[in-house]
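@channel sequence for tomorrow's demo:
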Amino acid sequence: MPDPSQVSTPLARSTGAIFCFFAAAIAISAVVTGWKLGLRSAKREIRPPIAPVQIFAVSGNSMAPTLIGSARQIVCSHCEHPLTVDADSIPTDSMPAPNSTLACLHCGKRFMPSDFENASALPADVVTVTTIDPRQLSRGELVAVTWEDQQHVKRLVGLPGDTVSLDPASDDRPRILINGQRVEDLLAPTQSPRVDVSSDLMRWHSLALPSSWLRSTSNHWSSKNALDIRESEWIVYRHQDPHNAGRDGPVLDDYPMNTSVRRKLSPVDRLWLDASFRSDFALNVQVAFWTPEGHRLHESHLPASSSGFTTLTACVWDAAASENQPVSANLPIAIRIAGDTETSDTETSEVTIEGLSVSRSVEYRLNRHHDRSRYPFTLSENECFVLGDNVPISVDSRTVGPIHLRSIQGTCHPLALTE
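structure tokens (generated this afternoon):
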């Protein structure tokens, strides 16, 4: 059996998030022309932007999941969930068989050649680049930055005067700290990119026996009588590692798109939960999270919604410190209806929960080949520190070092395209 901490995950054709450039002024709605700026192929000099706003198409996947370049979508024949993968993982005439270790992150099923027959190409994301005084930049923004005569899009995480260091409590891929805080904590929650973990209902279990909750095959939990729901009836998420035959384990920093990058996976602990509730009375919902620092508890008051569903999004950062919650590294999230729910006149009101979906925030770490000896260091008044969201494959300040502010061409914003 292969080492469960290893995963075959496609290396993007370039390891930086690179652009195909389309010169376009803000008043021009059509894209005029372009050229590809690859890591090795770019020969022409990069000139300052000629217009306040320009348009670029992303090439490469070093900013995934935030920005996608060359990608395909396949659908798992077992659970029917879609999966976005690098285009290089799709079989071609020169590579007729897909990587045998590519597994569905939802159900763990290994993809077969037949699963790739109907793979659909996804259009590359397009961004606008707006010129800005670099000293007006804010942490967490996406920026167009130039080094070695090539242009890239990265996330700005370190500002002039910040101290960049490593978390001594991390494993052999240490987390990056800015002024003593984890990067993902500084970005959270509004600028924290998310990676899907699972939307498989079968990974959720009721802790109460017998339970008033019933799990349906149509992707929801329901209770026919709200008064029967006891406050002790938690529904917990049990994580099953798709790369370790579905065995229980902690959530890992898997990037489903990187289906041909073989590396060690590390545990993650900054999780999110999305769910939808339907009830004809108001609900008080509690979501418990496990973190190495201790248990945390999120509480939300949801209005009555008998004619439709009310959506709940909860994350570690909007949860308060708590104790004695039914969560652990392998059971990292639990959800319940709290005891002070406001019931209606009828005693047979049904409560329905559907769309339970777990995701994780990107955790920014060094990879094994990065030089740790340079840390810690403090950025000068003209320097910044940038990272790619696809941490395993991105070429960024971990490799090239701090970036001079004059190398930043502007801020990047995804452009919604309509047919």
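heads up for whoever presents: Confidence is low (pLDDT under 50) at residues 1-16, 20-50, 93-100.
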